[in-house]
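U., I forgot to send this yesterday:
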Amino acid sequence: MALEQKKNKVGSRVVDHDALRIAYRVIVERVEKGLIEKALGITAGNQIVAAKVLGINRNTIRHKIRRFGIKVTRFKK
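Result:
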């Protein structure tokens, strides 16, 4: 029964909601990591300015830098 609740028929296909949720997270994280790295490159590793460029809070960028394992020192000149 639990498996049936996680899958719904959409048109002629069966959609696995957990698989879609995981795929969404993976894609979003890859894009976020790339954008943060680009912003850090543009700002020579300045996290506060990079956060402003991205329109996010400085604490948010610091959290994501740790979460994604980004080495900020490689962007500093």
